[in-house]
Design goal:
It is built from 14 helices and 12 strands. The chain is α/β, with parallel strands linked by helices. The protein binds L-rhamnitol and zinc ion.
Length: 421
């Protein structure tokens, strides 16, 4: 795209937004400070590096597709991430799962992982100026095969997963100390039942006891922030999920943790946009897993649909500094780096839409009971030239403008990912 035309379009857009009391330069500045947490697991279909050619199993989640070129090694995954970062405006983080360590060709079981297995990632993150986030991995493992982990009735299995999660938090704190930015450790477990259980309480009691042991280890919030992720249902846990919304909401509020809300983890018509201001009433921060469920928690690539826009608008209204925005989806049917970039750019566009909202005017209408005016302005705002502001931001940030990045990824596919056979 032509630079002069982008700049000219931007100055016209700037004037139009100014009529609504919106400062586009300020919006761009705020957007440039937003750091998304990019989920490493989109790069290899949640396989990880515990074993060669590992693949996602159990856990109530599923990846479909076998498009060519998935990352098979740490080096390939890093190269793909670097490509993705180069096509997304701004500075973004990396979100790792515990199965993505560098285990030196040995089988290191989950209760043996240690900071040393993530030293390579820390070095890479530092070299690239990238912040880190982390997740214990309580799936794709024989000890999770029957669908229970931290709430398992077998004490030794619980002990195994408690040890794993304690180590995952220790590794997180190590990463936070090394990189100088706090790591968000998120805990999601698959525990639940396909059929209606006779006892819903006992597994929840056991999960609570396990969590008490895990979070008894204290770390500085400068290094580590803890989140717990609820879910309504999964594949094989359609009738009961131990870690439900109420369970984790209660646990988090009582124990000073933050909740993680995933866009795919509630009833399909339930919006998490409405939940953000409620949760932040009782918590200083919240973690979002930006995903896209299609009929179920299918983890489709994020696009700028109404669900996303509603959420990002609330993120802006509630304060960008209070919401950690992480991506969570996995699609193996198309170019995986393209999936990262599409979802990241869509999320940033959603945040930009929130920043460009004529919020002062809307609030004024609302406060004075001018309800038709509020509705009409909301509608007119949808036809404002946000794309011109977005393009200008991309230009300034030194990343491809508009659809230009598609060609760059085609070239990367031709020279790099398609050669992975
Ligand atoms: C699963 C949760 C969880 C995972 C990742 C891989 O339903 O959303 O966040 O997607 O941890
Ligand atoms: Zn999630």
């Amino acid at each position: 795209m032509n630079k002069d035309r982008i700049e000219a379009a931007y100055s016209a857009a700037k004037e139009r937004y100014a009529e609504f009391g919106v400062d586009t330069d300020k919006a761009i500045k705020a957007l440039s400070g937003v750091s998304l947490s990019l989920h490493c697991w989109q790069g290899d279909d949640v396989g990880g590096f515990e074993k060669p050619a590992a693949s996602l199993s159990g856990g109530g989640i599923q990846v479909t597709g076998n498009y060519l070129g998935k990352a098979r090694t740490v080096a390939e995954l890093r190269s793909d991430l670097e490509k993705a970062y180069s096509l997304i405006p701004g500075k973004h983080r990396v979100n790792l799962h515990a199965i993505y360590g560098e285990f030196g060709g040995k089988l290191v079981d989950r209760d043996e992982i240690a900071p040393e297995h993530f030293q390579g990632w820390v070095d890479w993150a530092k070299a690239n100026g990238v912040g880190m986030d982390f997740n214990a991995t309580l799936f794709s493992h024989p000890k999770a095969d029957d669908g229970f982990t931290l709430s398992h009735e077998d004490k030794s299995i619980r002990a195994f997963w408690i040890e794993h999660t304690r180590r995952a938090r220790e590794i997180s704190a190590f990463m936070g100390r090394e990189t100088g930015t706090p790591v968000v450790h998120n805990l999601w477990i698959p525990d639940g039942c396909k059929e209606t259980p006779a006892d819903r309480r006992a597994p929840r009691q056991r999960l609570k006891n396990s969590l008490d042991l895990i979070y008894a280890d204290k770390y500085s919030p400068d290094y580590l922030r803890d989140a717990v992720e609820c879910k309504l249902f999964g594949i094989g846990s359609e009738s009961y999920v131990v870690g439900s919304h109420e369970f984790y909401m209660g646990y988090a509020m009582k124990n000073g943790l933050m909740v993680c809300m995933d866009l795919g983890h509630f009833h399909p018509t339930e919006s998490i946009a409405d939940k953000i201001s409620s949760v932040l009433m009782f918590s200083d921060e919240v973690l979002l897993h930006v995903s896209r469920g299609v009929r179920w928690d299918s983890d489709h690539v994020v696009i700028a649909n109404d669900d996303l826009m509603d959420v990002t608008r609330e993120v802006v209204r509630n304060g960008l500094d209070k919401v950690h925005v992480a991506l969570d989806y996995f699609d193996g049917t198309l170019n995986r780096v393209g999936a990262w970039v599409t979802g990241s750019r869509a999320t940033l566009k959603g945040i930009l839409a929130g920043l460009l909202e004529p919020s002062a005017m809307l609030k004024e209408y609302e406060d004075s009971g001018k309800l038709f005016e509020r509705l009409a302005l909301t509608e007119e705002a949808k036809a404002m030239p946000m794309g011109d502001v977005w393009n200008y931001y991309c230009l300034q940030a030194g990343v491809p403008v508009g659809a230009d990045w598609i060609g760059e990824l085609q070239a990367y596919e031709a020279t790099v990912t398609s050669k992975r056979v």
